[in-house]
Design brief:
single chain; little secondary structure; rod-shaped
C-alpha cells in the first residue's frame, strides 16, 4: 500500500496580546 501523506503540523497559535492596563 502507498505510504501515508506527510504530516502537516498545525500552525502555531497567534502571539498572546495582554490586555491594556487600566487607566
Amino acid at each position: 500500500e502507498p505510504p501515508p501523506p506527510p504530516y502537516d503540523p498545525p500552525p502555531p497559535p497567534p502571539p498572546y496580546d495582554p490586555p491594556p492596563p487600566p487607566p
